[in-house]
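Task: sequence design from structure.
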């Protein structure tokens, strides 16, 4: 069986990050790679890259293809990705997808795309209801993962905050950007012979219900492989 490059594809707030954490080491060997997390780390460090992308991310726009692709190329080249990895938030445009195909070419990876389908109204409610602890980074939501004390972190007592890219106006901008620039990827992935494309209802039950469906789909694909 070849190592798997699993691409979790869906609108902002579709649950890609949650599913990637549940899948890593379970259905896919190798790490969960979130381009959003990588970029936010640079912003928090205040380095040149972080300074350059902070305003772009805060406005809900996409970071330039070449820049984010360079980060991905470096990350998947590390030893812990030899047996597979999960991409969360990349690719987001057709040019990025073509750059990724070039990175994977000749490396023996099976490429599987999981499209998490969600209702946009539910996405807006989910993201605008998220709260972040500025000290430990814990994420909460108004429901169902609410903190014990409203707006206070359970772990360190810090006052929770709304992440800049979770504000409702930014969420709407992110969804508009997604519709314009990222939805064409659905057509690309469906027609790309080097990728398996599967759609999963991202709102069918809780996260554990969704991850079971993804694992079932991955197992079905593996059983269909020759040899």
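Answer:
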């Amino acid at each position: 069986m070849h190592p798997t490059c699993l691409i979790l594809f869906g609108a902002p707030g579709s649950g890609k990050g949650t599913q990637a954490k549940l899948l890593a080491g379970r259905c896919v060997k190798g790490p969960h790679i979130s381009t959003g997390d990588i970029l936010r780390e640079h912003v928090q460090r205040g380095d040149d890259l972080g300074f350059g992308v902070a305003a772009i991310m805060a406005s809900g726009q996409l970071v330039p293809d070449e820049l984010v692709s360079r980060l991905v190329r470096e990350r998947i080249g590390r030893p812990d990705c030899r047996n597979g990895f999960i991409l969360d938030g990349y690719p987001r445009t057709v040019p990025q997808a073509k750059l990724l195909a070039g990175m994977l070419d000749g490396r023996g990876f099976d490429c599987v795309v999981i499209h998490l389908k969600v209702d946009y109204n539910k996405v807006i409610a989910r993201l605008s209801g998220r709260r972040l602890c500025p000290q430990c980074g814990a994420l909460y939501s108004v429901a169902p993962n609410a903190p014990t004390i409203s707006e206070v972190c359970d772990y360190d007592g810090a006052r929770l905050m709304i992440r800049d890219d979770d504000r409702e106006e930014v969420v709407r901008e992110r969804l508009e950007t997604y519709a314009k620039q990222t939805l064409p990827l659905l057509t690309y992935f469906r027609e790309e012979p080097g990728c398996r494309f599967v759609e999963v209802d991202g709102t069918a039950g809780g996260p554990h219900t969704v991850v079971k469906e993804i694992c079932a789909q991955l197992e079905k694909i593996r059983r269909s492989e020759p040899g």
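The CA atoms of residues 90 and 147 lie 30 Å apart.
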